[in-house]
Amino acid sequence: MAEFAKRMDNIKASDIRQLLKIIGQPGIISFAGGLPAPELFPVEDFKAALDAVMDENGRVALQYGATEGWKPLRDHIVKRLAARNDIHTDAEHVLLTAGSQQGLDFLGKLYLDPGDVVVVESPSYLGAINAFKQYECKFVEVPTDENGMIMAELDRILATTERVKLIYVIPDFQNPSGRTWPLERRHQFIDIINKYHITAIEDNPYGDLRFKGEYLPALKSMDPEENIVYFGTFSKILAPGLRIGWTVANAQITEKLNLIAQAAVLQTSTINAMAIAKYLDMFDIDEHVAKILPVYKHRCELMIQTMRETFPEGVKFTDPDGGLFTWVELPEHINSRKLAEAALAKGVAVVPGDGFFPNGENKHCFRMNYSNATDEQLLVGVHRLAETIREFM
Amino acid sequence: MAEFAKRMDNIKASDIRQLLKIIGQPGIISFAGGLPAPELFPVEDFKAALDAVMDENGRVALQYGATEGWKPLRDHIVKRLAARNDIHTDAEHVLLTAGSQQGLDFLGKLYLDPGDVVVVESPSYLGAINAFKQYECKFVEVPTDENGMIMAELDRILATTERVKLIYVIPDFQNPSGRTWPLERRHQFIDIINKYHITAIEDNPYGDLRFKGEYLPALKSMDPEENIVYFGTFSKILAPGLRIGWTVANAQITEKLNLIAQAAVLQTSTINAMAIAKYLDMFDIDEHVAKILPVYKHRCELMIQTMRETFPEGVKFTDPDGGLFTWVELPEHINSRKLAEAALAKGVAVVPGDGFFPNGENKHCFRMNYSNATDEQLLVGVHRLAETIREFM
């Protein structure tokens, strides 16, 4: 058999996806995934929307459609971005993708030759790192503090690094850290990328899931030079099983992303895009999101409070204002992969942190998710984790 | 702004996708797409399956799922492959993809470094050529006759060509030619790829759409050495808007395709896979396919008969036993791109043939689709085309 392509040396199994298989087993308490709470899915309403699509327009829903995606859904996205995020665009600059993960693959394909550099927060989303790795790139990690990316470090890196093609950031409730950039850093970021004329991806899957504190504007809303490619998704506010996200970018990038989508997949699912558009016609998605927020707030607070009460001194963790994750820093001598294995033996799953550092230097952190656990699971799971950590101290 | 990756020089707009935009305009008779007849979609039955999924299992349907795809659907695929195609596999060797187009992208990603060679039939499916081009490969075209790929030529090419990583073929009702390989060529093909230990993709979207002649076995059914990666899809027998196809491959390739799927898109749509599985539980898809066949047979025969009556002497075309397409060869001095433009000016769309030849030497052919046209459109469209051709003779 012929050899595989060189890029396959970089493509490893995602820890999270591997863990998801174990998590399905009975008795495991999982803080590992990034799964929304399924009991909050608007099953009845979405079924009504699906039925309306099938009744009114079933033959269109089951047929091929345009690569860029169902126009009424793109119109809805444009309207909501303007109303909620002060991002002003039009449907021609929106491309539907099969979740933001596909957007990451497409941006990697668009920009990255082997050896090109992607600049990321340290830590950054594991799935983005894996998507870009397919294109044989290098990563430069920008140090972060409790307020996210340190902008002086970003400036220094861009001034001194060759072949930077992309910057990838999650300014709101970052995956994995749960951190959010304050306003000043957002302005600084825009100034820096405009100075170097670099394309930056603003990945915003969690922005709508703010349950504490004040709204902060999206980078894309302060981007007259159009260096930002914005990623949004219905995965966290409606349902991930539909696999519908979107990109907003300037005309040139959008045209190229359309060509990539044509060659890679033709289009996203017609029926899924139509059903979401119909759901947005029939129901108020912000009312739905408003039902999610207090639940996630409660779960987050219960997890954090229990961690405060049980985790040994010397263990730090973030206290997020929204999103799905908190991030735990152990004393440096503790290997989080070994700790995660020991926790799993006690029936609790977390994601070891090293996968979130593309260059792999950090071994003593892990990520915890609170959105998809009951109060009892949160209490029992955190207690077991605390016990595991104490054994490693 | 940073420069795009080198691969973007190879990624052009698909003629077909561009044409699909024009085709939406009223009054245009389109023989250009590869669209199934939407009036044959089982809208009511599929809605019943969707409703059952939402009622019984809505929270699972809307949630993330495993990368390889909904297990009950993979079980259905395994059963149907055994019963209809004598292909014996199990669910672990099946990966769901967002249509076969995504399978093409994944296989290109798995095998192709820049400069590697893909061997294809001449002509071959334009969408496959575009998918592989993303990986900066070269193409070697194997000459074909009325029975498809000429195997002595394939043998000669494999004996003399360096860096062949993949062979891509459509043995049944090929896109664009409508041709089907006879049994002897299938056996020869297997002998040749086994001799050279080359991975071959058998793309079989149309195999179930045989409306004349005898069933011929899939290459994958005569592949004990597992050099064949088989592609199937629900797009042509159920509905393309769902974007669900599948690959069947050996364990090593399937494992790698899973990793690629994780990095590129996480998974196909959970709800769509579940709804198809439920549809297959509730209804007999072969009964549904049996309703499609006489319609396509009639449309094909009407198109071919009208072409026989109206096309000038010196114009050749295939008479397919199934699938969606016939292929027209004009006298060599006629440029099919100019002819297609002139036909469009008369309100008839066809796809110029040069896009189906990756090395672009052939300029005098075009592809016609009959599955998505009324009798009147078939009659009027072919007459107008005949008139256009006569103007070019």
Which series of helices and strands of chain A comes N to C?
Answer: HEHHEHEHEEEHEHEEEHHHEEHEEEH
Uncertain residue segments of chain A: none
Radius of gyration of chain A: 21 Å
> Which pair of chains has the greatest number of interface residues, and how are they split between the two chains?
A-B, 83 and 83 residues
From the spread of the alpha carbons, the general shape of chain A counts as globular
Task: State the helicity of chain A in percent bands.
Answer: 40-55%
The CATH architecture of the largest domain in chain A can be named as: 3-Layer(aba) Sandwich
Overall number of structural domains of chain A = 2
The proportion of residues in beta strands of chain A is: 5-15%
The number of helical elements of chain A comes to: 12
Would you state the CATH class of the largest domain in chain A? Alpha Beta
Count the beta strands of chain A.
15
Largest sheet of chain A: 7 strands, mixed
Distance between the termini of chain A: 49 Å
- From the 3D structure, determine the CATH topology of the largest domain in chain A: Aspartate Aminotransferase, domain 2
Architecture blueprint of SSEs:
Two copies of one chain form a homodimer.
Chain A: H1 15-23, E1 29-30, H2 43-61, H3 71-85, E2 94-97, H4 99-111, E3 117-121, H5 126-133, E4 138-142, E5 144-145, E6 148-149, H6 151-160, E7 164-169, H7 183-196, E8 199-203, E9 228-233, E10 245-248, H8 251-265, H9 270-282, H10 285-310, E11 316-317, E12 325-329, H11 336-345, E13 348-349, E14 351-352, E15 365-369, H12 375-392
Parallel strand pairs in A: 1-13, 3-4, 3-7, 7-8, 8-9
Antiparallel strand pairs in A: 2-10, 5-6, 9-10, 11-12, 12-15, 14-15
Helix pairs in contact in A: 2-9, 3-9, 4-5, 4-8, 6-7, 10-12
